[in-house]
Amino acid sequence: MKKAFVVDFDGTITVQDVGFSIIKELANEGWKEVGDLWVDKKIGTEKCGKMQWDLIKYDDNYIKDFVKKFDINKGFIEFIEEMKKNSYEMVIASDGYDVYISEILKRYGLENLKVICNSAKYNEGWKLSFLNSSKECAFCGNCKRDIVDDFKSKGYKVYYIGDGHSDICASKNADVIFAKSFLKEYCEKEKISYYNFNNFFDIMKYI
């Protein structure tokens, strides 16, 4: 059977949640209250993102320099090589933003990977775009579930790798789940089968 891997970015490919770190360290006061509304599902990613990024008074060059301190998780380079060697499909699916995702991937020579995410452009303030949101659900800016479902409709066995709130819907529709952090806790609470991982070497043991 054909295999496809849908991989979260923040806290999964990267060791730390880069998007959250940008908000926490660079946004003015008020970001936490907005974030709490998102966690409680009182607002979606689009509204949360626009409100929080409005509190950031630094331009894109500053952001790109800021994210130089963030590393990718152990084994991700080897994982990519495994994907290519076996002709597996792989897409990075993130509810984060291209301004830092592309910068980090480029630093590791991975700029040619397929990425589906939200967009953040600076022009006298931040302008956010959410081109992959679901028509049925307005919570996530980038509907990862649609990405999983598209692969499944084409006959792929879908493996989902993630750690956070925005990974829940997509992972439930996947055939195999690799989870850590919040997603792991959710799977355990809901009695959903999953494989635990800390880095991509862990995942490669199961492939």
Automatic annotation (TrEMBL):
Q: What is its EC number?
A: 3.1.3.-
Superkingdom of origin organism: Bacteria
Where are the membrane-spanning stretches?
A: none
A GO biological process this protein is involved in?
A: L-serine biosynthetic process
Give the EC class as a word. Answer: hydrolase
One annotated GO molecular function is: magnesium ion binding
- Keyword set for this entry? Hydrolase, Magnesium, Metal-binding
**One cellular component GO annotation, for this chain's record?**
cytoplasm
- Claim: Glycoprotein is one of the keywords in the record: no
Which cofactor does the UniProt annotation name? Mg(2+)
The cross-references to InterPro entries, in alphabetical order and at most eight, read: HAD-like_SerB (IPR050582), HAD-like_sf (IPR036412), HAD_hydro_PyrdxlP_Pase-like (IPR006384), HAD_sf (IPR023214), Pase_PHOSPHO-typ (IPR016965)
Q: Which family does it belong to?
A: Belongs to the HAD-like hydrolase superfamily. SerB family.
Q: What is this protein called?
A: MtnX-like HAD-IB family phosphatase
Organism of provenance: Clostridium muellerianum
